[in-house]
Amino acid sequence: MAKHDNAYSRFIAWLKVLLPVLALMLLSTMFLISRGIDPSRSLTYADVDIEELARDQRITGPRFSGVTSDGAAISFSAESAQPDPDNPTIYTASDLKAQIATPDGGTIDIQAALAYVNGETNQLELSGGISLYTSTDYSIRTEGLRASMDQTSISSVGPVTAEGPAGLISAGQIDLIRQEGEVGTYLLVFKNGVKLVYVPKINEDE
Q1: Please, which residues bridge with residue 64 across strands?
Q2: Strands 154-156 and 160-164: what pairing?
Q3: Segment 16-32 mean pLDDT
Q4: Is this structure's pTM higher than 0.85?
Q5: Are 129 and 143 in contact (CB under 8 A)?
């Protein structure tokens, strides 16, 4: 019994020495590791230009809808939009999709790679390859287009090509205009050197 007590006493005595030593070793190791870290390297984003980041503000997935003064519903969306740093009412948008629904029941769907949106003048300037699809089965291509957001108005900038029920059409310009004497009736007019190539429909039953 005495030997057992002596062994136990010696074990406790060793623990009293070893535990403080181990604690000191752990503390010294933590101290050495913390001094081995370079604070300047840990902040890998410290070289970011904050002013440039603020200038490069973008809006993801913007959407707009409203009704023009002559009763047409207009809506558009874009993949992203970036405000002008000097005028927050002006935006540059990419991958724009728009629709104009006129009071007579017609629709025009528009797709454009780039758009310049001026909130002060309520104007859209589209560029970068534009496609228009009408509810009267016309598919139209042009490189530039101007549209209004407060009234029903569309004008191409430069020549257009189209395919529709009448055949293949090329023209120097197209305009969407309201038909005189008809309330809520609109016409898509081809003008300036219009050429029509009639393509007869083939009766699939024959």
Answers
A1: 76
A2: unpaired
A3: 49
A4: no
A5: yes
